Amino acid sequence: MIEIKRVSREFKEKKHTIQAVKEVTCTIPKGEIVGLLGENGAGKTTLLRMMSTVLEPSSGEIFINGVNIHKEPMKVKQTIGVLFGGETGLYDRLTARENLEYFAAFYGMSKHETKVRIEELAKRFGMRDFLDRRVGGFSKGMRQKVAIARTILHNPDVIFFDEPTTGLDITAANMFRELVRQLKKEGKTIVFSSHIMEEVEQLCQSIIMIHKGQMIYQGSNEQLYREEESRDLNYIFMSRIVRGESA
Amino acid sequence: MIGHVYKKELKDSFRDKKTIYLSVLLPILFNIGILFFFDMYISNQGKDEMNVVVNEQADNTVVQWMEQGENITIERVEDPVKAVEEGKALVAVEIDEQFMTRLQNMEAPNVTVYADQSSVKASATSESILGILSIQREQVLAQRLQELDIQTSTINPFEVKMEGLSGDDDGSLYIIAIFAQLVIVMGVMMGGMPAASDLFAGEKERNTMEALLMTPAKRLDLIVGKWLTIATLGMLSGVFSVVTFVLFVQYGTKTLVDALNISDNTLFFTGSLIVGIIVFSLLVACVFVVLSLIANTMKEAQNYISPMMTVAMIPYFLLIGTSVNELTVTHFLIPFFNIYALIKQLIYGVYDVTSMLYVAGSSIVVIAITFTLAYMMFTKSRWVLGKS
């Protein structure tokens, strides 16, 4: 369960202050898959970064499984997995195995535990043949597999994805979506941002819409469809933005 | 956990070709290059022909005097000054006609020496000529005084002598000291440079830093692991520089080899130098960490770090004209000055435990301050996240 209470975040630049996120409040139940929608610059990534402990809120509080992120960040980090899109956060000159081993140690996994887990993930993602090659030579899709493996290496309860399918071909994108479905079956709580409405439609049970740092909707897909009398997320999203409604 | 970060960073760095080039190959080539050319320069110094032209009517006796000079070749030409201006000779000597006859008749004939003082070789040649002529003049004077039954000391009440204290006559030790300081300091700084820009700015650029910060890894462990990696590469490069420097001087030079003699106090020399390299590497690595944290891309980091090489040259040039006897406590307490001063002292055979302790102590203080600054920056998201 994720609780976000009146969270704001400002960035100070030389001549003025940018309010990236404004008093967002919402609750994400355990085991739910939430789509985070918004235009570029709306504050999605900032919100994800705050939830994943990288950025501190300017005000407000965030709890994950009852633990205050700001007060006990180490405890929270142990239970979350994060994958931010674009770059994959991998070391090009290390092999896939070495990358995974490096990160595993930070989660306190023993060598044996790490080895077993890596073999399991390699099998699951079909990358056994690539484990001992350097990541720098990998294709985009293969890199994504290693990055995802790294993200769920320590079996986190909560997983954050930021535009995870950006730049992926159809095969890799489908693989990711299949992964999300499996993780859902395992009872994981997932929050991911995307610009691809079909993806959100297929995978998510509920939606958070953000516009100019403010939340303009939070709730289930079905309720949103009823309120808007439409199942076209693109249409709904644009309507909400035009109206500027607050949730 | 610091060890875990450290091992991974070292492995990563050594797989980077830039690290190999800058930490290993470049120091070796740099050493060999400058020593080879300088040694060749010194060797050729003693062999250069000194071409001198004199006027056609110059007296044979005077010409014979000058030909006694080492490497001096005399040629008679119609217009000596013109010959020098045209670059055909280094020095022109105009000798009055009937020089010896007039000398014997108690007249005062002239010898005029022309040389372009902006030329090192011409200056050396003209000094040589003037020296020879001075000796001859004094001999004539002595002979005349003897004929008049006058003691030489009557007109020469005291002698003035100049003796050097540097202890090495041909300047080889001076040359070695100059290059040793340059080679070691440059080696340490070049060795740490590629890792410095890569481990902080580079990680920000590639988003691996953000991935790290989301794990339970302690920030202190991360920054210490990276700092020690940068310092280690600097140390390795520094040691490589010393080893290749000594080996090349021993086996690759002609004139410098005799001057480099550390067999008397090898242990102290080696130990003191290693301590100096270690503390200097740690200090430089700290500064590099701060600069790399400020930058958001590797290119930007390189732009901040590269000028450090130039800044490091300032104390080098300030100390270049300071003799080992002039070094004071202050020189050993100011970082960057202290490493140069220590190396110079060791090269000249001055072994002082106090100097080494001052160098280590002052460096540690500055390291503590700089590291604290770096760690404070590393705990702020502004400095550890790249631009979004």
DSSP strand content of chain A: 25-35%
For the termini of chain A, the CA-CA separation is 20 Å
- Counting DSSP H or I runs of 4 or more residues, the number of helices of chain B is 17
Class derived from helix and strand content of chain B: mainly alpha
The neighbouring-strand order within the major sheet of chain A is: 6-7-8-3-9-10
Mean pLDDT across all amino acids of chain B: 80
Structural class of chain A: alpha/beta
Low-confidence stretches of chain A: none
Shape of chain B: elongated
Query: Helical amount among residues of chain A, as a percent range?
Result: 25-40%
Provide the spatial order of strands within the biggest beta sheet of chain B: 2-1-3-4
**Helicity of chain B, as a percent range:** 55-70%
Domain ABC transporter (chain A): 2-237
Keywords (chain A): ATP-binding, Nucleotide-binding, Transport
Pfam families (chain A): ABC_tran
Organism (chain A): Priestia iocasae
